């Protein structure tokens, strides 16, 4: 790999192209195709593809080549539309019902500017975007009229199929059908490339809006104490313990009852509705685990400290109210008195806190009404109810800790039951933070405190998106606010824990005053109950108190004063009050906050006033013109301040005043402003003040403590601009819009100071660059993918405008004064650049009238046309002004004001400043180039739009100087790209420049912009550098994403080309000879298909893109990028409504004709989609398929040869994209043009094109596996699958599917959203895990789209194949090409296809066969076999149209084959083999459908009048019947996949059906062998292989007579008696000489040897070593004949091994256990009343097989439907339940006649070649199974099977049954013989087995043996039977007993010799028992039946 890379680096790109060409040449490329690679071209001025050609002068070309089209869509695309660019003013959305503006108007210029900045409309450039970017293209949701194919009647015959029609007519008809209802847009069906985010995507920035964190709604429901005696006032606020910061303002609420409120009536004015709110919305930007919701309670001031006042609340309980009635009454009356007198004052009472995250986290769970111990204190608990409200999603962006999200928790209802008493000396925030931190500890100090019990109920939930009835912190109503009388919800202002960087967008001006502590310890006199009165004054008179203090709860909106809460008897109190003030917009020096300290007397004493003033202090609001805020420690005066105090600070020691504690600071207070007017930053304040000073032009200016005169204004201004870098970032961001506006203004209109124009362009540019970089650096989270800071991009997009370009009004404050000059350009430049640069002014400017009518007008026109032209020194300007002024005797002032016409040259100044900048400024500007580029573009657009220059020719729009500056900038960036090592910077610069040039194409001379593109592209090309490569492609992609990309590629030239070609075509038709035009025309066409120099010059951008594609060296890395550029371009053309007209699209496609050649050339490098195999075959080949795929293909006599291709280096994804692009061009390009080009291609090139199409078929095959979908959420899989398949493969189009889903009530997201966005995560090649997450609707939709894509792609391929066929049908080389066409067609049939496609595909196939019949039947015979398989597969489709077409095709195939040679043997044979292959491999195959198709073929044959008289219809009928028979059996196999015995039976029957097709029979035998091996039935597998070998031997002996080969199957008799069935019976046999018969690899000597060796191996595995020997007996002669000593050595080795094992395993071998199984019941179908012998593995118990069969059939029919018959009696079917299935299972043993036993000596003999089996059934005559000995009969059943075990299957039918019944005495004889045998065996066993012997003995002589030997003897031998027939039995039994006693004696003797001393007693007991038995038997044994011994008796008597 490393070597390859090194090599790749050494060669230049041109050489690489050469190398490529050679590779391509080996493929047979003609020079024509590869001219584009700069090799052997005829053009003299060749430019290699690695270099950019010079673009044509675009504007010039358009003028010199007037359009040849009159009008219509083609004409519209020649030039950009006239309304391409507009500037639109959109009103900004206002949250509130009324706009937030200052009440007193905007007198102050700064306030005016701020308010304008917050209220003016957005100025948005509208570049009409008609096309969609790739990502906006919905994939398939609106896909037009998809596939509206109506289901024809089931398998109707195709009309006119049998008519003879001219080929041309058929072709025309097929084409019309194919072209109808096609998808207009290919890419709508293709997923976008899987990219992060398309780089050309420029997101519209978010509209600037007010900042909110995550919002929380808190509703206060009720507050109830144990006793209700007085009003209680509550407030809520949020605190962050970690930051030690209060993070919200207070929310005051009042939950008192009306009755309680009435106690305060004298003190309450009418309550404003805003103060009655009980719910609040809190905003939290930085949620964390440290946030607490703190609730504080206050009550009316009363005598006594807090502890005393709280005592009753702790002591009394509600339950004891009756008991304590009197005490409560007393308390209530006291409270009433205090309320009357002290109702104005409050005192702290109690507090509590809620840990917010505990609530949020536990609210996520599903507990209901659970008691939550919050670990606060023993009884401290909160109860919460999960509210009924559902979750509300609240999508607010905050950078809070993810684990602390407040957006999705379940609403919770909290009940707070405990409050803590406020400690008078611990009221400060510091104390609170300690308490809160302590609360989180398990051992909280607070737990030990006695709580105040109460019940406060709160609802906490995520705030809804648009709550109704909401008031802002400024009390403005938020939309929607339907009714002003409804109790509102308050939005609570957040004080974020950390800085928030969001520009101000609304007017807000609030001040919060927080008194903190007071120290009157050293004050003389009585001052103990202290309250502070706070007032906001605008003068010193008491009446100057302003009503701007916000009310708390149940009071007026605003008041003039606020009092702090009183801490009883405390001279140094802490305060926790917050006073909220609405600041006036404009402040003067007299505005101040006045604090008055009072002592409140709680006790009512005579002559004592209620409040006594005890001190005064104040804070002036302004200091040096800036707002004063922060912490203050103020001295307190004992007397009222003197006059004019307010302009001084109390720190100043005023003469004659008395101060507390010697003028030391004793009062701590904090003042916080939340203002969008006051920047609270000294540098910003100074800058704004100076700018406004310029506006006002009032000198000297006071700024801070400085006085600035006009003469030093310039230096101050410049230094204040530079100092902006020092300002804090947060205020800079807050005032960003205003700040940037002011800087722009200073650039555009340098001020005139003291008669001099001051150029501030450079200073402003520098500070702008600096600010932009600061934002980028510190706020990197708010950047888009291009590194654009969102705050800046939204400024440019919405806020920025050229000063005074607003059509409605001149922007106030952006220059309403005279003191700005318009001489914008005076930056320092080399003198040489300064010569004669002039600016032209548009003649169409409405501000300049054509003929001056008055001196004023004339002056204006002169100044307009002259002065603005100048680039000159200041003195020259002034001289000109003076001359104008003098010549028209006008005051100079007028002239200067005339000058004030807006210049709008900001972009020129910006470009200039950028070009001349250097060092860190230039670096900074480059870092954020996007910002300046976008500003420039917006400035240009505004300039052109508002001066009406958009109509003027592009060449005259901009001065040369500006063009030079732009060129300089582009080269600066190109140089930077080479030198910089910062990759991110390079990427940002690259995209910024690309977007800039893209924008310039809309407004500038396009030829000029092309040269810029070329210059930059060349710079990036010179370095062989992968990074630059990637940048270059990104650059190209962005530039090409231009809205009018097609127009930019000289659309006019394309139209011209097309007209030329069509003219030639018409002429050639007339002259019947294209000779005269052919050269010119060929050259034209060749140029269109190549990247020739003219092509690249005229179609500049397309040329660049395609050049990049054609020279890709490293497809793995850059390949995807280049391909995605092309993919996205074509995709956007496809969905663009402007190109919807097919004629237009065909012209657009001409821009991409070279793509065909390029893709053909990259064919060897593309991903090989064919390697995977088609998923149709894959799906069928998996699972437990019967036949391996290769075997199946071999059976069908086919194989699918894919083109031999080296493995490509393009990824699958790039290849797929490249191919879809190719298909798009083929689909949309003009057919005539394509046909003309195909004619010129060589055979090898056409073949390469066909290979490419073959690859396309595999690539776009429909691959969504329905099984994946079924396994998901829906279980109604069958129905679902059918519906889906119908939709995908059948007739429902996506459109109908959408409509249907829309109508259905449960419309999913897919149905309901018409303009569905194609989602990236829905590409079907993503991993399954992602698939699992999709909804059913998504999966259905995706499947639908993919199905439609597959169809459309294949139809395009079909269209192309048709063009190729038409092109080559007249040439000599047609054979090789047509073979290729057929190959592609067949391949497409093999893949998953839709009904629609197959219908057209079959039509094309029929036409092809009818045009070139010899092609299929003589040349491409392999493909004939393939075609038969494909057609047959389609004949079994579930969709009737597919079946109809496939049947028609198959019928015509037979017919055409018949017509050629009077029989259709080839098709007949191929179809039979195909059927076998199909049913063997296909899992989802349906016999019913295939039957229907067979019927259809028969019908065609019957209706075919032309051939009725021939043998053809009969031949068809024979074939169909034969197929039907095979089909029925094969299909049953499908049903019995899980039933191994049935499966093997069916395979056996099918194999038998193929008795006449040796190849197929062999295949099925091998399949059976495979199945047996899988189940470890090695003996059966071996038998299958022996049968296979016998079959092969039969046919080999027919072919050649070789002595050493087996003579057919007879030779194999010794291995198995069953093998004779393989003999080839004469009349059936197909001669092995016929082609296609016995052609498999096994029908050879080597094949035979292979089969036998496999058989020997299987026998060996089965342990049947004797059979191994027999197999080798057949093999040895063959190897001997071949003198193969090595093989013979191996065989003898194996034989030795086999015989060794026989010896070694003697007595330990086990072969099988046999059972008779009978099936009864109609549920079993074919098996009903069938009986089999099953062979099971050795030592299988009856229970095991019984359990297996019962389980298997129970699963199949239902457990309650299957019963096992427990006995083995004959079954009477009439007595069985007809609805059930019955199985009878009996253990059987092999049965041999006596004569057989002499041959069956060994264990193997007794277990091999078994055909007879026996089982016994006990019964009594009265029907019971068992009875007493004398009534116990036995039935012995002998079964004979059709074949001998082991056989090629594990169960064999029983063909014969005989029964033998034994009488009770015969049963007894058998039993005794058996016992005797057992004794004999145990006695003589070697080695002896004592245990076994004792067991048998115990059973023979033990006294306890029931029905033992003694009882048998007593029953049958005690009396001589009356029936003479029984004499023999009696005697036989007697002799048996004699033998038995003898054997017992032997056994006892043997046992004695075996036992140890411990068993002596046991032996004696056995012997005693034996003697007892012998004595008892003695008389019975000795009693003989006289009749049997008659002759002997006579003799004796005679003596």
From TrEMBL:
Sequence ranges assigned to domain DOCKER in this UniProt record: 1552-1986
Alphabetized UniProt keyword annotations: Guanine-nucleotide releasing factor, Phosphoprotein
GO terms under biological process: axonogenesis; small GTPase-mediated signal transduction
Cited PROSITE patterns: C2_DOCK, DOCKER
Domain C2 DOCK-type span(s) in chain numbering: 508-674
Gene3D superfamilies: 1.20.58.740, 1.25.40.410, C2 domain
Protein name, entry field: Dedicator of cytokinesis 7
Source taxonomy: Eukaryota, Metazoa, Chordata, Craniata, Vertebrata
């Amino acid at each position: 790999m490393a070597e390859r890379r090194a090599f790749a680096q050494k060669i230049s790109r041109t050489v690489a192209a050469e190398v490529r060409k050679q590779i391509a040449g080996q493929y047979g490329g003609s020079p024509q195709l590869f001219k584009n690679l700069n090799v052997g071209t005829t053009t003299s001025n060749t430019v290699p593809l690695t270099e950019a050609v010079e673009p044509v002068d675009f504007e010039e070309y358009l003028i010199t080549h007037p359009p040849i089209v009159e009008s219509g869509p083609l004409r519209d695309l020649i030039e950009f539309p006239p309304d391409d660019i507009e500037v639109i003013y959109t009103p900004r959305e206002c949250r509130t019902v009324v706009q937030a503006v200052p009440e007193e108007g905007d007198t102050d210029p700064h306030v005016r500017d701020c308010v304008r900045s917050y209220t003016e409309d957005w100025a948005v450039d509208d570049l009409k975007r008609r096309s969609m970017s790739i990502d906006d293209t919905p994939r398939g949701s609106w896909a037009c009229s998809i596939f509206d194919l109506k289901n024809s009647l089931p398998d109707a015959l195709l009309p006119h199929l049998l008519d003879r029609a001219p080929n041309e007519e058929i072709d025309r008809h097929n084409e019309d059908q194919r072209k109808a209802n096609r998808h207009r847009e290919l890419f709508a069906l293709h997923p976008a490339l899987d990219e992060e985010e398309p780089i050309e995507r420029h997101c519209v920035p978010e509209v600037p809006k007010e900042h909110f964190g995550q919002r929380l709604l808190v509703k206060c429901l009720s507050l109830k104490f144990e006793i209700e005696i007085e009003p209680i006032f509550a407030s809520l606020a949020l605190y962050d313990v970690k930051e030690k910061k209060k993070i919200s303002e207070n929310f005051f609420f009042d939950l008192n009852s009306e009755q309680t409120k009435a106690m305060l009536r004298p003190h309450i004015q009418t309550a404003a509705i805003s103060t009655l709110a009980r719910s609040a919305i809190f905003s939290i930007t930085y949620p964390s685990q440290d946030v607490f919701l703190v609730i504080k309670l206050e009550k009316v001031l009363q005598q006594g400290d807090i502890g005393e006042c709280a005592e009753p609340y702790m002591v009394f309980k509600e339950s004891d109210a009756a008991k304590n009635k009197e005490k409560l009454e007393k308390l209530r009356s006291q409270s009433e008195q205090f309320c009357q007198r002290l109702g104005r004052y409050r005192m702290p009472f109690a507090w509590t806190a809620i840990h917010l995250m505990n609530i949020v986290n536990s609210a996520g769970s599903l507990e209901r009404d659970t008691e939550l111990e919050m670990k606060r204190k023993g009884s401290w608990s909160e109860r919460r109810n999960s509210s009924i409200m559902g979750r509300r999603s609240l999508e607010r962006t905050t950078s809070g800790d993810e684990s602390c999200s407040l957006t999705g928790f379940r609403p919770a209802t909290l009940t707070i039951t405990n409050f803590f008493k406020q400690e008078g000396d611990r009221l400060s925030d510091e104390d609170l933070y300690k308490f809160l931190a302590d609360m989180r500890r398990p051992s909280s100090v607070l737990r030990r405190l006695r709580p105040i019990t109460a019940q406060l109920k709160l609802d906490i939930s995520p705030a809804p998106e648009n709550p109704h009835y909401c008031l802002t912190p400024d009390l403005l109503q938020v939309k929607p606010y339907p009714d002003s009388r409804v109790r509102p919800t308050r939005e609570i202002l957040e004080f974020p824990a950390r800085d928030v960087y969001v520009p101000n967008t609304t007017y807000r001006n609030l001040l919060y005053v927080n008194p903190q502590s007071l120290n009157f310890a050293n004050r003389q006199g009585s001052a103990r109950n202290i309250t502070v009165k706070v007032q906001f004054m605008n003068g010193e008179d008491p009446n100057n108190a302003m009503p701007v203090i916000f009310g708390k709860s149940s009071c007026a909106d605003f008041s003039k004063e606020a009092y702090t809460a009183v801490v009883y008897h405390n001279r140094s109190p802490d305060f926790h009050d917050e006073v909220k003030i609405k600041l006036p917009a404009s402040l003067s020096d007299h505005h101040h906050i006045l604090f008055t300290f009072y002592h409140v007397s709680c006790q009512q004493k005579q002559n004592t006033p209620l409040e006594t003033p005890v001190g005064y202090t104040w804070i002036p609001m302004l200091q040096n013109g800036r707002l004063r805020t922060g912490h203050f420690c103020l001295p307190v005066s004992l007397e009222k301040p003197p006059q004019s105090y307010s302009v001084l600070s109390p720190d100043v020691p005023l003469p004659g005043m008395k101060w507390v504690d010697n003028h030391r600071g004793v009062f701590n207070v904090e003042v916080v402003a939340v203002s969008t007017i006051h920047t609270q930053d000294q540098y910003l304040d100074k800058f704004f003040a100076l700018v406004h000073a310029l506006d006002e032009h009032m000198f000297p200016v006071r700024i801070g403590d400085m006085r600035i005169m006009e003469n030093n204004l310039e230096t101050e201004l410049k230094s204040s601009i530079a100092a902006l870098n020092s300002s804090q970032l947060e205020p800079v961001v807050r005032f960003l819009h205003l700040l940037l506006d002011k800087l722009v203004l200073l650039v555009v209109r340098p001020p005139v100071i003291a008669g001099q124009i001051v150029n501030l362009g450079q200073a402003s540019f520098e500070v702008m660059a600096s600010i932009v970089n600061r934002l980028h650096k510190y706020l990197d989270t708010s950047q888009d993918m291009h590194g654009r800071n969102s705050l800046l991009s939204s400024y440019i997009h919405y806020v920025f405008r050229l000063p005074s370009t607003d059509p409605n009004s001149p922007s106030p404050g952006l220059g309403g004064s005279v003191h700005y000059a318009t001489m914008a350009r005076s930056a320092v430049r080399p003198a040489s650049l300064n010569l004669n640069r002039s600016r032209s002014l548009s003649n169409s400017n409405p501000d300049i009238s054509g003929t001056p009518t008055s001196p004023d007008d004339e002056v204006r026109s002169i100044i307009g046309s002259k002065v603005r032209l100048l680039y000159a020194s200041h003195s020259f300007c002034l001289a000109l002004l003076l001359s104008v002024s003098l010549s028209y005797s006008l005051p100079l002032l007028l002239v200067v004001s005339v000058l004030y016409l807006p210049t709008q040259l900001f972009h020129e100044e910006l470009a200039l400043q950028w070009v001349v900048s250097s060092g860190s400024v230039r670096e900074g500007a480059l870092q954020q180039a996007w910002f300046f580029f976008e500003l420039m573009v917006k400035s240009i657009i505004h300039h052109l739009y508002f001066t009406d220059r958009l109509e003027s020719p592009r060449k005259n729009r901009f001065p040369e100087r500006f063009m030079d500056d732009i060129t300089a900038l582009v080269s600066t960036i190109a140089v930077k790209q080479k030198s910089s090592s910062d990759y991110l910077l390079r990427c940002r610069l690259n995209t910024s420049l690309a977007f800039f040039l893209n924008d310039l194409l809309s407004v500038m001379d396009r030829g000029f912009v092309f040269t810029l593109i070329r210059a930059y592209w060349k710079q990036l090309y010179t370095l062989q550098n992968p990074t630059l490569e990637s940048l270059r492609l990104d650059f190209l992609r962005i530039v090409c994403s231009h809205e009018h990309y097609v127009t930019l590629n000289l659309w006019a030239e394309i139209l011209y080309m097309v007209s030329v070609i069509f003219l030639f075509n018409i002429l050639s038709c007339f002259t019947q000879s294209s000779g005269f035009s052919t050269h010119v025309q060929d050259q034209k066409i060749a140029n269109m298909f190549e990247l020739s120099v003219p092509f690249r010059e005229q179609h500049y951008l397309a040329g660049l893109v395609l050049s990049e594609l054609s020279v890709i060296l490293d497809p793995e890395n850059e390949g995807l990028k280049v391909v995605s550029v092309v993919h996205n371009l074509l995709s956007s053309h496809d969905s663009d409504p402007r190109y919807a007209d097919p004629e237009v699209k065909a012209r657009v496609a001409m821009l991409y004709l070279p793509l065909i050649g390029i893709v053909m050339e990259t064919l060897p490098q593309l991903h090989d989609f064919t390697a995977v195999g088609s998923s149709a075959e894959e799906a069928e080949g998996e699972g437990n398929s019967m036949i391996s795929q290769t075997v199946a293909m071999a059976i069908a006599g086919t194989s699918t040869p894919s083109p031999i291709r080296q493995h490509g280096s393009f990824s699958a994804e790039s290849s797929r994209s490249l191919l879809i692009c190719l298909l798009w061009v083929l689909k949309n390009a003009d057919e005539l043009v394509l046909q003309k080009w195909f004619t010129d291609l060589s055979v090898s090139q056409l073949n390469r094109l066909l290979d490419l199409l073959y690859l396309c078929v595999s690539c776009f095959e429909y691959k969504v596996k329905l099984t994946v979908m079924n396994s998901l959420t829906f279980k109604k899989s069958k129905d679902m699958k059918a519906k889906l398949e119908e939709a995908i493969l059948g007739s429902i189009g996506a459109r109908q599917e959408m409509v249907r889903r829309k109508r259905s009530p449960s419309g999913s997201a897919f149905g309901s959203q018409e303009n569905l966005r194609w989602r990236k995560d829905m590409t079907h090649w993503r991993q399954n895990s992602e698939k699992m997450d999709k909804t059913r609707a998504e999966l259905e939709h995706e499947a639908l789209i993919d199905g439609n894509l597959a169809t459309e792609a294949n139809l395009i391929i079909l269209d192309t194949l048709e063009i190729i066929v038409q092109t080559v049908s007249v040439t000599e080389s047609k054979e090789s090409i047509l073979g290729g066409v057929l190959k592609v067609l067949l391949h497409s049939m093999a893949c998953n296809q839709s009904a629609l496609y197959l219908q057209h595909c079959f039509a094309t196939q029929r036409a092809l066969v009818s045009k070139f019949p010899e092609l299929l039947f003589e040349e491409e015979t392999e493909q004939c076999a393939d075609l038969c398989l494909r057609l047959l597969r389609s004949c079994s489709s579930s969709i009737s149209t597919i079946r109809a077409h496939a049947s028609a095709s198959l019928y015509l195939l037979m017919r055409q084959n018949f017509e050629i040679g009077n029989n259709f043997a080839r098709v007949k044979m191929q179809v039979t083999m195909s059927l076998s292959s199909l049913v063997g491999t296909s899992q989802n195959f349906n016999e019913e459908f295939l039957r229907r198709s067979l019927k259809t073929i028969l019908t065609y044959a019957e209706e075919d009048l032309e051939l009725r008289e021939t043998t053809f219809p009969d031949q068809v009928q024979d074939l169909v019947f034969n197929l039907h028979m095979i089909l029925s059996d094969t299909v049953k196999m499908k049903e019995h996949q899980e039933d191994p015995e049935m499966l093997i039976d069916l395979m056996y029957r099918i194999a038998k059906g193929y008795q006449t097709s040796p190849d197929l029979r062999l295949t099925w035998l091998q399949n059976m062998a495979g199945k047996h091996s899988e189940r470890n039935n090695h003996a059966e597998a071996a038998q299958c292989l022996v049968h296979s070998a016998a079959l092969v031997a039969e046919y080999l002996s027919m072919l050649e007579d070789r002595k050493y080969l087996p003579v057919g199957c007879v030779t194999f008799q010794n291995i198995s008696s069953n093998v004779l069935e393989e003999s080839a019976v004469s009349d059936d046999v197909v001669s092995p000489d016929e082609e296609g018969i016995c052609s498999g690899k096994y029908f050879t000597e080597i094949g035979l040897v292979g089969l036998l060796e496999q058989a020997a191996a299987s026998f060996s595995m089965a342990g049947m070593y004797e059979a191994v020997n027999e197999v080798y007996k057949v093999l040895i002669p063959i190897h001997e004949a071949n003198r193969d000593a090595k093989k013979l050595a191996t065989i003898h080795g194996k034989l030795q091994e086999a015989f060794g094992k026989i010896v070694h395993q003697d007595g330990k071998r086990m072969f099988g256990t046999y059972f008779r199984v009978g099936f009864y019941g109609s549920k079993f179908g074919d098996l009903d009343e069938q009986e089999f012998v099953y062979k099971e593995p050795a030592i299988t118990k009856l229970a095991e097989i019984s359990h297996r069969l019962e389980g298997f059939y129970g699963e199949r029919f239902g457990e309650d439907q299957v019963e096992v018959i427990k006995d083995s009696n004959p079954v009477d079917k009439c007595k069985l339940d007809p609805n059930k299935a019955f199985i009878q299972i009996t253990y059987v043993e092999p049965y041999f006649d006596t004569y057989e036993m002499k041959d069956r000596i060994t264990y193997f003999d007794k277990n091999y070649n078994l055909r007879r089996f026996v089982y016994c059934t006990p019964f009594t005559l009265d029907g019971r199974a068992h009875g007493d000995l004398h009534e116990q009969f036995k039935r012995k059943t002998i079964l004979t099977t059709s074949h001998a075990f082991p056989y090629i299957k594990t169960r064999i039918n029983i063909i014969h049954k005989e029964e033998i019944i034994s009488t009770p005495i015969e049963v007894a004889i058998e039993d005794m013989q058996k016992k005797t045998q057992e004794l004999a065996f145990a006695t003589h066993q070697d080695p002896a087995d004592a245990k076994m012997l004792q067991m048998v003995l115990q059973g023979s002589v033990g006294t306890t043996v029931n029905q033992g030997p003694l009882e048998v003897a007593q029953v049958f031998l005690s009396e001589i039977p009356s029936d003479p027939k029984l004499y023999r039995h009696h005697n036989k039994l007697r002799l048996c007993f004699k033998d038995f006693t003898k054997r017992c004696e032997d056994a006892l003797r043997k046992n004695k010799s075996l036992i140890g001393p411990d068993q002596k007693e046991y032996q004696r007991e056995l012997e005693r028992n034996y003697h007892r038995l012998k004595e008892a038997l003695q008389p019975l044994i000795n009693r003989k039946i006289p009749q049997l011994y008659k002759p002997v008796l006579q003799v004796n008597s005679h003596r």
